[in-house]
TrEMBL record, chain B:
This is Cell cycle protein. It comes from Clostridium thermosuccinogenes. GO terms for biological process: cell division; regulation of cell shape. It is a multi-pass membrane protein. Keywords: Cell shape, Membrane, Transmembrane, Transmembrane helix.
Automatic annotation (TrEMBL), chain C:
PANTHER family: NUCLEAR INHIBITOR OF PROTEIN PHOSPHATASE-1. It holds the Pfam family FHA. This is FHA domain-containing protein. The chain crosses the membrane at residues 12-30.
Amino acid sequence: MKGAFRMKEDRKVIHILIVMSVLFLSLVVYLTYFELFVKDRIITNSYNQRQWEAEEDTIRGRILDKNGIVLADSPKTEDGWKRTYPHGSLYSHVIGYNSRTYGKSMLEASYNDYLLGSERGIFDFGNRDESGMRYGDDVYLTLDHELQKLASQLLGDRNGAVVAMNPKTGEILALVSKPAFDPNEDKLSANWQAMVESEDAIFLPRATQGLYTPGSTYKTVISAGALENGMEDLVIEDKGTVTIDGKPFSNTGKKAYGKIDMKKALAVSSNVFFSQVGVELGENVLRSLADRFGLGKDIPFEIPVTKSRFPYDSMGKTDMASVAIGQGKLQVTPLHMAMITSCIANNGVMMKPYMVSRVVSHDGDEIKVTEPSVLYNVMSTQTAGAIKLMMREVVKSGTGKSAAIEGVNVAGKTGSAENELTAEGEAKNHAWFISFAPVENPKIAVAVILEYSGTTGGGSAAPIARELMKAYLKK
Amino acid sequence: MLIASYKRPVSLVVLADILAFGLLFFYREPHDFYILGAGLLIITLIAGTYLFIVKKELGDEYLFLIVSMLASVGFIMIYRLNRGLGFKQIVWFSGGIVLFFLSYFIYIRIKIWNKLMYAYAFASFGLFLVTLVFGSNIKGSTNWIVIKGFSFQPSELIKILFIFTLACYLTHSEQIFLNALTLKLKQIKIKGRIALMAIVYMFMGFLVMQRDWGTALLFFIIYITMMYVFDADMKFLLLNVIIAALGGTAGYFALYHIRVRVVTWLNPWADIAGKGYQITQSLFAIGSGGFFGTGLGMGRPDYIPEVTTDFIFSAICEEMGIFGGVAVILLYFLLAYRGIKIVLKTGDTFKKAVALGITCMFGFQTFIIIGGVIKLIPLTGITLPFISYGGSSLTTSFIQLGILEAVSREGGQDEGSISDEGR
Amino acid sequence: MYEILSSIMKYIFITIIYLFIYGIIRLIYLDISSMGAKGKHGMKKGKNLPYIKLINRREDLGFKVEETYTLDGNMELGRSNKNDIVIKDPYVSGKHVRFTVHDGRTSMQDLNSTNGSFVNGERLGRDPVYLRDGDKIHIGQMDFLYVEN
């Protein structure tokens, strides 16, 4: 009898052993998971004084533009060095800041290890100055300072963003967001409270994290869908407005264009044409188009980029029509629009965007070099070619005339994005302009957005793109 | 000549200690000769105790072996963090070994352990009351008694008494009853189980009053575990779990402190400088070590508050890496495994219960505190047995180990026999 | 200088600790398998062998004694180390008793012990006696139950 009783208990003791094993195993698993996936995210937090430990003994590396102009520096002071940004607010949304109080942001955060030279390993004995302090590595960007300056000047006081890139390589040439702020430590502390509380969202890097409806610029994407689905010869009678499922879709000013083909429709940005194309293409094609162009997917970049959105579970006809003219619930970042533009310019191949061209140690060794790489093969060369021609027409005879440059074939598309203020009147829409040049051999692609600036995009945003491209192509 | 090899694990502990103490010698400027002396003492103690246990066949030899490695990691890390505390810990360790042997021999000699249920219960109540009245509040919990500069935690002692109380009950539950105050008409016999529940919940109540949530949780887990194994009534267990769940939820809503702990566990980043400071600093440390650690003395575990006590494991992860942390967890697991083996081997119910209680105490306590500092579960202020700095913790852990060793000495069933087969 | 030492040491420490863990697991495993071997040894030739099982509580006896002793062939029990079964009971003679297992039966013979051997309360004479399943044996301070498998 006693033996039987003992066995019953013993079985339960085994249960307890199993429970304890599971508990201990969960500890090990969680620790490993933490080390592999979580820790990188958190150790750059400014409350982690270890970050500053490394800083104490290291002269932080500089950040320079493609031509060697210094954008972030560590000049010597009496007790070490001080992080200085000679160009004030120009790069605040690209390079960010490096502050004991406020932490690290943007490139200062993501390239922290390189800037502190920790990627070189402990057995590196060079890269020191006379007093024994180590030098961090210098980071060279693909950005062109002259272009960045010009873009910022052109934006002026208006809020918005400008993104310029090389469509063939994915290199970012200019990345400007406004409003911006001065990231130098003293200015940062002086203005912090005010900036945090400002209604203008000063800390939002609009170029990479601002989400806007693309407006008519999205018609370029829709064209791809139309061309791939046998609609290249489609002709529609444009009476200025059309009703789909009870909702009216009208051109700007309800202007009627009569019988138009796709080329003309894109040139004049006909909502009547494209809304019907959207319905014709159907939900599956629209969804797959968005997916191929990268909406809803992460965009790999050296600083955080918000995912563009195609948030439709199911679509009715009015949804399809809205999407086809770039309104509704569609949302994109200016960077993404620049990538889409580059994709068209680059024969349907979307390159991975990047800002850092190389990292070089103080003594001159190359620590890291970025090579261009393909992100998505979005469409065929023929389709891209056809869209290129249509976008050329926009600038030649359509809504983008103010982007024309003498002696250069420019392609582009205007856009007018509805927003929360549209109800007050179309003058409050965001103004988009995307373009690239020269059409036969694109060297630069630009996306510009001006917030709350008016209807056409042609009037206000296009000239910015024009001047930028002009300046770049002159070099 | 001592050849260190995995075939003789004790040699590895000795080797590790030699290397570690040697390294620590160079750690401080000027070089600290006392640490070499301490190292020698430790090595002699560990090797001596281990050989004594083996030669005299005192019982399970793995228990002490595992503990010696754990304790070594402990005082090496503590010395690195704080010279004074390091030496104190080594003193406590030596005292602990003495207590280990004392507990072992005393336990074997005295036969009436299983008859003293009321004695244990009253002693515990006494200690609780004393703490309540005379206790000092150190770092948020009022579970310390300070006499002439020496502080100790009665709750550590009560842990042992608690296990014995439960074990007594489980051995002859039929016989335990309370005679209630005789109301002129009749004597009320309260069923033993209810009496036990009353005692247990009162204990937990005291702990809650002292703000020692971790120990209260631990007591509850031990209680449930032992009842589950020995006293099979599922309904009763369920009842207790429900009461605890209700109590816990009520506590969450009623008591600010509990709410803070849970909220901070879920998102410490919301208040990094305030409530979340401890756990975030712990996470920073753990994340800064990589898999092999920064190396002893090369990290900055000193940024973590309470690093010699509650967060010692985070310091280990920072300087000895994730591999180091995992090794420590594995060692505790082996300890628990050996403990369970001893429980299974023992025939006598009282001894089984005591062994199970002690094993679970080590096992669950370890899980709760490590889980807390890595943010798997909310943080509680209990110690990591044998590693955390603390006289009370170390000494009572060794007493428990001594008792466990004593139980392992003569199991009810001999390992080499086939006694119960063929029945 | 210290940094280099510490950096090298960290790999050494990790190695030592894991070797230690491995060593302990290995020893535990060896213990378990040697237990299993002993058990198998007791069941050799596939036959279930008889054994005597201690009835007293081991902790009441002041000397080391097993719970059971398997009987096979010729086995002598006594205090001397020359016996097959060695028990250091002061009331047990140097050579106290012999068990013989043959043809499925076990016999027990007292070897002129000082305090005698008892089966079911009766003291043995010079002649061997056959044991039956359930017999109670008394030797020195110990009581055994004879179990025939």
